[in-house]
Specification:
Blueprint (H helix, E strand, L loop, with lengths): L5 E6 L3 H10 L6 E6 L3 H12 L7 E7 L8 E2 L1 E4 L3 H14 L1 E2 L1 E4 L7 H13 L3 E4 L7 H10 L6 E5 L5 H16 L6 E7 L4 E2 L6 E2 L2 E6 L5 E6 L8 E5 L3 E6 L4 E6 L5 E5 L9 H11 L5 E2 H23 L10
Parallel strand pairs: 1-2, 1-5, 2-3, 4-6, 5-7, 7-8, 9-14
Antiparallel strand pairs: 8-19, 9-15, 10-13, 11-12, 13-14, 15-16, 16-17, 17-18
Helix pairs in contact: 1-2, 1-7, 3-4, 5-6, 6-8
Length: about 325
Amino acid sequence: MTDSIHNILLVGAGQLGSRHLQGLARINIPVSIEVIDPSEVSLRTARERFTEIAKNPYIREIRFNTNGNGENSAIDLAVIATGADVRADVVTALIGDKQVRNIILEKFLFQRESDFERVGALLHERQVKAVVNCPRRVYPFYLQLKEILIEDGPINFRVDGSNWGLGCNGVHFFDLFAFLTGEYSSIRIDEVLLDNTILESKRPSFVEFTGSIRGANGRGDMIEISSSIEPGTPLHISIGTGTRQIEIQESAGTAFFVKNHVGKVFQETFTVPFQSQITGTVAQEMLMNGACSLTPYKESVHLHLQLLKTLLAHLNNVSGKQYENCPIT
């Protein structure tokens, strides 16, 4: 284990950012952490949540600031947990001002199509390694499930439930679909059955969508994500193959496996890890290896753009306007 101290910058200390900080508080290599957020309230929450974690001798220093891009000129790892509306500007300002080695970006990445190319070009130019926090691919249950599905061939992947935030969270399930099938570049959206009512998000100034989106990939795997405006249905994932059916209820931590030719039902229980249990591990992987198990930026961009273009086109069609950005986060 190296004795050098790694500089970590966390930008955004809101609900999710503060959970990232709790994860970083569990890291097992020497680090200096700086947290930046313009809101004193958010910084206070982050401080409180940081102190909930047992004191860690590997945290050599921690600072909280409301302004700027941090005090260090060289950043070994930046975690960008801002809203999607400002994330592209935050990333470009940070990379333009600092020497940054690695970045973990929150989803939904950006609201404008042009931002993906702008940020991607800068990451390439400055040789910054970037990943996107779609963490289901690091859940132990889905890692095991991927191994099971390898022998089954194409899958039919469905997600449904009530008001689960299709706009904000849909990319999580497209990412899980890509992870389980091993395909991402050939994923496409084939059918859009979104509702004409655009909803206000729980987060001010953002919107949400209900209805269904269907797609597929070049291997023949199929995906459908559906969010109903009617309340009362928990989020549910269904995966069908030629040999088995799998029904997953993450909130209950249960999965039911049915072999098609036998009909026998096997139940497995699992635990969904919190973000505070994930960030420290993936951050340490990036700092030590320059890579981690989260989604590489290039792969995630393709999935994000498939959804962004679909949602923005629907928003413009329903509103009769020509927005350049889709206000999801």
